[in-house]
Amino acid sequence: MRQKFNLPLQPSQVKEGVSCRLCVNECKIPEGERGLCGLRENFKGCLRGADSQKGSLEFYFDSLPTNCVASWVCPGCSEAGFPEFSYRLGPEYGYKNLAVFYNGCSFNCLFCQNYHFRETLTSLPQKFISPQQLVEVIDDKTSCICYFGRDPACQLPHSILTSKLALKNKKGRILRICWETNGFLSKNLLKEMVEISLVSGGCIKFDLKAYTESLHIALTGVSNRQIMENFKEVVRYIDKRRPPFY
Ligand code: SF4
Ligand code: SF4
Ligand code: SF4
Description:
The chain is of the alpha/beta class and 246 residues long. It has helices spanning 131-136, 156-168, 187-200, 213-220, 225-235; strands spanning 18-19, 28-29, 40-43, 46-49, 57-63, 96-102, 142-149, 176-181, 204-206. It is globular. It starts with 17 loop residues before the first strand and ends in an 11-residue tail after the last helix.
């Protein structure tokens, strides 16, 4: 299936390849080839493609309340977080969510619900959006950002940078930052991501595909060991939630 889209079948691990450590695959990419996600390649010994300044993504607005998977607990759609993190005690009618849909994924799921993303990645992405460009679309009625997609993990530095810029520019307005991910994240960036979400009143949503490692490998092509470690780490932050959350 991936061959049809000109994507690698496995993360490359050649000794002399260029390293990318943005997700647990930790590809070592040979000259002229791409990492498993298809977002970056080894071009003459350097990584080329998506990076912290160049996001391969689509974005759009969703009116609140949305169908976000955390809608039953989040300040945008429930009574949680009012008044510090929500304009309304209940669904935040009249406001909207900036949905940022990142291209590329670190898994190779048997039943991928987004398989069509591979059509945009038959070659290295050519069109990019910078953090500054994304921040410029945020207006007074945007009260949250959701980073999701295929999976946002392979472009985490871009979403972290966008979040920092957006929070710096929010001028007293509410702006929650949320991520929805398969959890296959670099441990180094996990803390920064969770802390941004925590201080802004946002949520981290983990899409755990399976509990048993062998089943996870069968469904996605990769082990879930680091995902479970990451999940444990994120769960530790639950105690740091203070009222107005409950
Ligand atoms: S982000 Fe992409 S290139 Fe980097 S390690 Fe993960 S799959 Fe490989
Ligand atoms: S992005 Fe976050 S705050 Fe906004 S609707 Fe989704 S889960 Fe709720
Ligand atoms: S994690 Fe989601 S987008 Fe990625 S391969 Fe699996 S189903 Fe598809």
